C-alpha cells in the first residue's frame, strides 16, 4: 500500500521539465503490449489517484496545486493529517 506521505513525490515530479525521465514515466503510456487477463495490476498513476482521493486532494486538479510548492506541501500535510485521523477512528 502506498502511504499518504508519498503524495509529496508526484508534486516534485510534476514541477520537473517535461523531458525528464520521472515525468515521462508518470504521464507516459505503453506503445504496445497487452494486459494480463482478469483484474490487471494498477499503474502508479491509478494508485496515485486513489491515494489523492483518500487524502482529500482532488485527483483531477492535483497538478495545478502541485505547481506551487508551498500550496502543495500544505495540501499534502492537511490531507495526510485528515487521513491519519480517520484511520485512527476506524
Automatic annotation (TrEMBL):
Superkingdom of the source species: Eukaryota
Protein name as annotated: Uncharacterized protein
**What organism does the record attribute this protein to?**
Petrolisthes cinctipes
